Amino acid sequence: MTDAAARFRAAIEAGDLDAAVALCSEDVVFRSPVVHRPYRGRAALRPVLDAVFTVFTGFRYVAEYAGPDGHVLEFTAGVDGRDVQGVDILRTGDDGAVRELTVLVRPLSAATALRERMGPLLAAPGSGGDG
Predict the structure, then answer these.
(1) Domain SnoaL-like, which positions (predicted)?
(2) In terms of CATH architecture, what is 3-121?
């Protein structure tokens, strides 16, 4: 596992969202499983992570995969009584900072519940994403 991926995983597992965001580049691009346009920048990423920690229950990483272009952290969690399986896809820049974070989740019923729960939490002006 790359150093950036290991530190990101440790920060998320510890619930240290400030540390996780600090590991990202200033212009990090976050691609949500439930929003069409990406969120851009650390300031937009922080509220998304807050919302995830509010909505998900029992979040834990269960596997990891690495390749020359990035790192994948597989997770399980719950949302509204539904089991969620997902992955965090991390890509880092030459400086070691996370420059892209893409999240994918399944099944569709869990993704729908995630969208319904997170929508109101991210409806603040300037949040960066849309449906």
Answers:
(1) 6-100
(2) Roll (3.10)
